[in-house]
Design a protein that fits this description.
Keywords: Signal. InterPro entries: Ig-like_fold, Secre_tail. This is T9SS type A sorting domain-containing protein. It comes from Pseudopedobacter beijingensis. Strand 4 and strand 5 form a beta hairpin. Strands 3, 4, 5, 10, 11, 12 and 16 form a seven-stranded antiparallel sheet that branches. This protein is about 0% helix and about 60% strand. It has about 400 residues and is mainly beta. The chain contains no helices and 29 strands. The N and C termini lie far apart (about 80 Å).
């Protein structure tokens, strides 16, 4: 629901009418009043369990949250941790879930208005979970309101509010994490992880993503893996980082690409990874703010069409030599043999292959004709016919 405020100005005898939309959020299970609010956070694909994205909005009196998730999202039990003093060294320390920054000063846990509580932590991390003391029951509707979980299409949506006066003195930003702890499937936003931390949100107004990603893809090509991504908008975006993995677990950074800093139009980026390997390869895209804060944007998988070893061979014009272009998935010993169609061997060389692409020159003196080139490793035999015209 949105309220229109009409301001009437009179200047030099002329009358101007200006309509201003004031954002009003109502916790009622009708999510249309969130349409104009941008996402504050979107979990990277494959992370966060059944919770996928979050929007937030703050007024003078309340903090509002809208959670988007899969059809498994339930919120029979809602758990919210709030770091209100912006100090991860105080409060409940759940760094085993958020390794890059945690410290809960308040928590809401339960299913309002039937059961649950708003609790405040002693501030001493050593007190652990026992450091929380209930300050208000969630049966007090003034503390916290929540909607039903509503399914629409292939998503579910849920909204709730917290009254700010129960959270002590708040600055312009706080840090939060939201859990759906209903068994048997759980979820969180932001997603947990060794490099994860609580999400920083504005206590008044909206919280926007530094980058709104439009697309991210990886395509196999003869000269490498082509990575393309685009953004709808960028805010204080320093650069992007691309990471690569062969197992989808351990990632290594391969390149940094400058961002646009600020943009409200769609921008396109690309990078070609020439270090092709066989099998599935995973690429992770990360965005880094001007202040150094990083946000993962997604992971894509591409299946390389390369075999564990493959090669092509051709005669070097005007020289008594062949050139082999070889790809190997790892360092390995091999043997190259060139024979004529009658089986007579003209070249027989031991070749030590290294991981990746390589070009190898083999001396050869042969008459014009059709020959068979073979490259053998412990994993198999590769064969190619070659025509020598001179």
């Amino acid at each position: 629901m949105k309220r229109k405020l009409t301001l009437i100005f009179s200047l030099l005898g002329l009358c101007f009418t200006i309509s201003v939309k004031a954002q009003i959020i109502t916790i009622d299970g009708n999510f249309s009043d969130w349409d104009a609010v941008p996402y504050a956070h979107i979990n990277a694909e494959g992370t966060g369990g059944r919770l996928e994205a979050l929007k937030t909005f703050g007024t003078a009196t309340h903090l509002y949250f809208m959670v988007e998730g899969t059809t498994e999202m339930d919120f029979g039990t809602l758990l919210v941790h709030l770091d209100t003093d912006n100090n991860p060294a105080t409060g409940y320390n759940n760094s085993w879930q958020y390794g890059a920054g945690a410290g809960s000063d308040y928590k809401i846990e339960g299913n309002a208005p039937w059961w649950g509580s708003l609790a405040q932590h002693s501030g001493n991390p050593a007190d652990d979970w026992d450091g929380f003391t209930e300050i208000q029951p969630l049966t007090n509707a003034d503390v916290h309101a929540r909607s039903a979980v509503v399914e629409s299409g292939e998503k579910k949506y849920f909204e709730f509010s917290i009254t700010k006066s129960y959270l002590g003195t708040l600055g312009t930003v706080i840090n939060v994490v939201i859990y759906d702890t209903t068994n048997p499937v759980t979820g969180s936003v932001p997603a947990t992880g060794e490099n994860a931390k609580y999400l920083q949100i504005n206590t008044t107004g909206i919280t926007t993503l530094p980058v709104t990603l439009a697309s991210f893809s990886a395509t196999f090509a003869e000269n490498g893996i082509i990575l393309n991504w685009s953004t709808y908008s960028e805010q204080n975006n320093s650069h992007f980082e691309l990471y690569k993995s062969v197992d989808g677990v351990s990632f290594d950074k391969i390149v940094t690409v400058d961002g646009a800093v600020n943009s409200n139009s769609q921008l396109f980026y690309n990078y070609t990874d020439h270090g092709i390997s066989s099998g599935s390869v995973y690429y992770k895209l990360k965005q880094v703010d001007l202040n150094g804060t990083g946000t993962p944007l997604g992971v894509v998988e591409v299946k390389s069409k390369l075999k564990k070893a493959q090669f092509s061979v051709y005669k070097i014009s005007g020289q008594n030599a062949l050139e082999l272009s070889v790809y190997a998935d790892k360092n390995k010993a091999s043997k190259f043999v060139l024979s004529d169609i009658n089986g007579k061997v003209l070249a027989d060389s031991d070749v030590q292959l290294v991981s990746g692409n390589q070009v190898i020159r083999v001396p050869l003196s042969a008459k014009p004709g059709i020959y068979v080139a073979t490259l053998s490793t412990t994993e198999g035999l590769l064969t190619q016919k070659i025509s020598i015209a001179e």
